[in-house]
Specification:
The longest helix has 18 residues, at 45-62. The chain is built from 5 helices and 6 strands; from the N terminus they run βββααβββααα. It folds into 2 domains: 9-62; 84-159, no CATH class. The strands form 2 sheets. The chain has a 3-stranded antiparallel β-sheet. It has a 3-stranded antiparallel β-sheet with strand order 4-5-6. β4 and β5 form a beta hairpin. α4 (125-138) packs across α5 (143-159). It has 160 residues and is of the alpha+beta class.
Length: 160
Amino acid sequence: MPKKALKGITRIEYDGVSTRGWMIRLTRQGKRQQMFFNDKAFGSKAKALKAAQDQYDQWLSTAPPVASTKGIRTHRNSSGKVGVHIVKNTDERWKNAESFGYCASWVDKQGRRRKISFAWKRYGKKTAWALACLAREHELTDRTQVIELYEKQHKKKGAR
């Protein structure tokens, strides 16, 4: 039966090295705290673990909340919209058979990866971009819903 994982606490035990103990680490807002609890210094493996857990709990009680990076653009983003990227599809059966589109992707509340894409050939490059951005913004995988939302927004703009 696998042992229960201890968040922020790692067992350090190498063959051929006499140093054995528990390492605790906590990172918040780019600042990392870490401390090592040696088995010998605390009298036993269990006592070192207890001390490590107590210290980690103390750090947690004073640490700021975890900052979410959802929706924050990073250097890896090249499209300009978080969660939207270009996709290139190729078909090995035919020479030069490739198509392009925009794909919106995100992780839902259950932790599952979701995505939907819109082909340039079918929707046009500009509309495919707008549809993918809408799908990402509203986290929709139903193409019909995304298109209805897009049409609703464009009717309002045309009525002005």
